[in-house]
Amino acid sequence: MKSSLQPRRTTTQTRLQPDADTGQQAVQSGASTAKNTVQSLAKGFRLLEAFTAQEPELTMAEAARRAGLDNATAFRFLNTLVDIGYVQRVPDTRLFRLSTKVLDLGFNAIAHSDLRTRARPILRELVGEVSEAASIGVLEGGDILYAERIQAGLTRLGVDIRIGSRVPAYCTAVGHAILAWLPRETQIRILESQPRRKLTDTTMTDLDAILARLAQVHDKGYAVSNQETVSGLYVIAAPVLDIDGIPVAGLSVASPAFRTSLAQFEAATVEPVRMAARSLSKVLA
Q: How many other CB atoms are found less than 10 A from the CB of residue 144?
């Protein structure tokens, strides 16, 4: 019996022996990661992420497909999320939607953000007769997540962007202001991470055209949106860069199109926006 067991021990030792400092640690690390990962929790968050601003209400089957889950698993998870308050059933339908409780997670994450705190007074100075709103957005996946916003108007246009709101990066001035300062391969990866739909008549969706535009944005130092996310809304944005020139956020101002022409809006706001973005960059550095 000893002779039959001995080779197995030797084989195991040989497998770990070549690099005891790295190989064995890698094996232990992989085992530790597996032990410390709760796959069911990850699936639950994938299900929450299936709901988007463009499609806020989904059937169970649609949510399951988007999250990569089978229907039975999605059914159990959705019912659990309904029970604990993060998902709601849409009355008299087979649809589900996120509840406002989900916002608490995002609000808690950014409530004490240094970026948000330092941006607030700078944004206030930008809101006036020409610009009705000023915002700070950060890139998260293929979306822009709004971290702070000062708004004086825009309710007439039905614009409902708040802290925690998400918009696609490919069609927003803030998104372009951030993407323009990233490497080309990163730009492509982010732009290809989600379908590029026309949200308005002026939304640009062609990849090559967007990449060419990002090069122009980098050359000019700012991005302009001519009603590309919301009809009737002009936006100008500039990047907030860290000490190494890497974009950490985008700073923007917006105005309803009926108040001014795009040329007038650009002429009046480009320098204040660029100066504000540079000021915030220095403060954060």
A: 33
Concatenating the DSSP letter of every residue in 41-87 gives HHHHHHHHHT--SS--EEEHHHHHHHHT--HHHHHHHHHHHHHTTSE
Q: What is the rounded distance in angstroms from the CA atom of residue 40 to the CA atom of residue 240? A: 37
Q: What is the pLDDT of residues 129-186, one digit of tens each?
A: 667 889 999 998 899 988 888 887 555 555 667 777 889 999 999 999 999 999 999 9
Measure the CA–CA gap between 157 and 258, rounded to whole angstroms.
10
For the chain, list the domains and their CATH numbers.
2-36 (no CATH), 39-99 (1.10.10.10), 104-284 (3.30.450.40)
Assess contact for 282 and 125: CB atoms under 8 A: no
- How far apart are the C-alpha atoms of 124 and 161, rounded to whole Å? 16
Helix, coil or strand: residue 90? coil
Q: What is the pTM of this model?
A: 0.62
